[in-house]
Predict the structure.
Amino acid sequence: MKKRYATQKFFYILLLIITMIVVAFVLGIIFYLVFKGARAISWNFIFKFPSNGMREGGILPAIIGTIYLMVGTIIFALPIGIFAAVYLNEYAARNKFTRIVRLSIVNMAGVPSIVYGLFGLGFFVLFLRLGKSILSGSLTLALMVLPIIITSTEEALKAVPDTLRHASLALGASKWQTVLKVVLPQALPGIITGSVIGIGRAAGETAPIIFTVAVFSTPGLPKSIFDQAMALPYHLYILATQVTNPPKDFQWGTALVLLVLVLFFSVTGSIIRVRQRLKKKETT
């Protein structure tokens, strides 16, 4: 009995130490970015256009372009991803074909982002003739995060007890009414978690937007979804590799703004998730 308790205690302490190391690294990165980038943050840096070959001015077009891309990605990826997961989990037969489809979705999550960028260039930009635009970039990023959203949504749906489905059907509800009114509300916290992870990944990607939407500089803000746009990840790449003798504060400041933007989406998703969990507890 004492040996079993000692073994359990050992692994508990080991896992705790590993967790603390990971958290320390994450917090270290955040604090380092804040320390290095806070000096660049100012009104002009946030709300001005870049000038003098990116050595002066601000990053407003890159911020707006990134927001447009994130909103476009959410509009395209969320409905398709959620409906695909609902079909696979609630309607599709359990056979060899659906197993192949699930395996393909899981494998798509591991495809390098530059492959999605090349696909977006060949299909959306050239074949569909959408050109390098916000629409092409959003569709490409949506394809990239779809596997994450589908997989996480399906896992959240699987976690809903079958007794709830049976009770709803027994009361006379149709299959779709059961999914819409019972299953999806119960699975919503898990769906939001997966969606936030996917959108957060898309926000920091550079390779897909290089081929489909990103531009070095723009004289104004995008006026339609068919315009090109600047984006924070690509802008940071340009500052680090293409601009001669840029102010180092600009690089760190851009990285900090990108981090804050991603954290904003994550915190917003977390707030929605917590509210849904509280509502679920109140109803139960």
Observations:
- The beta strands are 50-51, 56-57.
- The two ends are 39 Å apart (CA to CA).
- The mean pLDDT is 87.
- Residues 2-37 form the longest helix (36 residues).
